[in-house]
């Protein structure tokens, strides 16, 4: 175990040395700022997410390296302005983990994972957080944000008791949506549609399903089937727009079997 940690530390030190060299010698690396790296970090995070969903462990390893580089890069920039360095970053997260896990580093007793999550949110409020929802980034995609919001409020006990209650809420929201669709008011249709999505995301949580992963799985499935359809149309030398839906359905059903 000790030898393994030494190897890992040596690898991390190697990365820090390379980062220093690049920052000093590479024209591109010299120019980067916290803000210029931001969109690249977001892109790398999504690439990691894709690799995880594809269960491509070699790509997961590669993308983790890319993200680690970004963390080291940000810390290097912070050190140049004397605001923080990589040691500060590591110590900050270590201190937080110790403080947020009193059942490991203190005398608190928990019975399960749910109590751990509840204690986590309570500790955050004791640290001066105004709201349990402060930790939800404003720029998150709406679907992911809804899921995180529901997770956060669950941590302080604001939640349904049984899955059937959530499903009843889904049905209620669907009925309200249909009322507004018939009324034809676009603004209220959008509002009710949002309520339906929010309630479905909540139901997914009760089914132990990550709604983002579920939707992306469907996206990938649709893309694969549609590209199969495009390929078959190409073999026939017939543009998709010239095919009937019945003709398309033949190849779509083939794709589903594959």
**Overall average residue pLDDT:** 92
Instruction: Give the biggest beta sheet.
Output: none
Count of individual helical segments:
12
Count of DSSP E strands?
0
Straight-line distance between termini: 46 Å
Secondary structural class = mainly alpha
H and E string? HHHHHHHHHHHH
Sheet-strand content, in percent, reads under 5%
Based on Cα principal axes, name the global outline. extended
- Radius of gyration based on Cα positions: 25 Å
What percent of the residues sit in helical stretches (DSSP H or I)? Answer: over 70%
Low-confidence stretches: none
Describe the model.
The chain has 258 residues and is mostly helical. Helices cover 78% and strands 0% of the residues. The chain has twelve helices and no strands. It has helices at 2-25, 27-31, 34-53, 57-80, 86-100, 102-105, 113-126, 142-154, 163-183, 186-206, 211-236, 245-257. Helix 8 (142-154) packs across helix 10 (186-206) and helix 9 (163-183) packs antiparallel against helix 10 (186-206). The mean pLDDT is 92.
Highlighted features:
single chain, 258 residues, mainly alpha, 12 helices
Structure summary:
With 258 residues, this protein is mainly alpha-helical. The protein is 78% helix and 0% strand. The model has no long low-confidence stretch (mean pLDDT 92).
Give the helices and strands, then pairings:
Blueprint: H1 2-25, H2 27-31, H3 34-53, H4 57-80, H5 86-100, H6 102-105, H7 113-126, H8 142-154, H9 163-183, H10 186-206, H11 211-236, H12 245-257
Helix pairs in contact: 1-4, 3-4, 8-10, 9-10, 11-12
